[in-house]
């Protein structure tokens, strides 16, 4: 009756869990699968281990979600855990792009743009990247409710049981 949790790396780490996720689905076992993913800016651009993981698990899981911003991590995980355990239990897949997992200073250094952009095109790219990082981390340090969401388990009535 308790939820199982697995955290795996992107690409082959995620694809290697397909059989286990299918078994959890067939056994009606609540499972939270956390899968890494390429950075949001690199999705669909040939990044290392970038595959459409959500489509892979769509038919196997009760829900498949990709976290887009740091502030969405906690609410997404709360909802995923409740979904996995509610009604008919089963697996839920949550994709976590690497840029939502790294600290602000690391992401800012890696993709925040250069400090001395030249020309209007360079300045436009710099502005875009700096806004991207600001939006990625906007609201990340605000307090979040971390209490579990209620699990909804439907119970059969006396008429349905046929007493």
Compile the SSE list and pairings.
Blueprint: E1 4-8, H1 12-15, H2 18-26, E2 31-37, H3 53-57, E3 63-66, H4 73-85, E4 91-97, H5 98-101, H6 104-111, H7 119-137, H8 158-161
Parallel strand pairs: 1-2, 2-4, 3-4
Features:
ILVBL protein, four-stranded parallel β-sheet, elongated, Rossmann fold, alpha/beta, 163 residues, THDP-binding
What do you see in this structure?
This protein has 8 helices and 4 strands. With 163 residues, the protein is of the alpha/beta class. It has a single domain (4-149), classed as Thiamin diphosphate (ThDP)-binding fold, Pyr/PP domains (Rossmann fold). Strands 1-2-4-3 form a 4-stranded parallel β-sheet. Helix 6 (104-111) runs antiparallel to helix 7 (119-137). The radius of gyration is 20 Å and the shape is elongated. Belongs to the TPP enzyme family.
